[in-house]
Specification:
Layout lengths: L1 H15 L5 H8 L1 E4 L7 H8 L5 E3 L3 H10 L6 E3 L1 H4 L6 E2 L4 E5 L1 H4 L2 H8 E2 L2 E5 L2
Parallel strand pairs: 1-7, 2-3, 2-5, 4-6, 5-7
Amino acid sequence: MVAANYDHRMHLHASHEHMMSDEHFAREFKTLHFDIGRQVGKTSLILELARPSDMIVVHNRATQHRLLQIRGACRASIVTPTEVEPYRIYRNLGDSYVWIDEPSVIGNAVDMLYQRIRAGLFIKLGE
């Protein structure tokens, strides 16, 4: 899915990206959303696949602390929306991914993520 998304974006890059805001382009062409049920191992998958340069966004500090304790070899940043909120100017992650664990629980803060972070891909896991 990631490779197919990248190929699709590269094809559209010249014709669409300059006509959209960075936020709109990210929503339309740099987002993969997997609507997967609860308690099926999404968070474990994120910890397994996230690269050191990636960012993992979780809904609260308790979840953040739990993931920091069990993350094993995962060296990606694990943050909450309140830690992203102070970015007045966007944070550029380049080709790195933003993993959003349970976007429905994060709610409106997902909008803020698109406004303040530039990344190669946003991957939403959950409703």
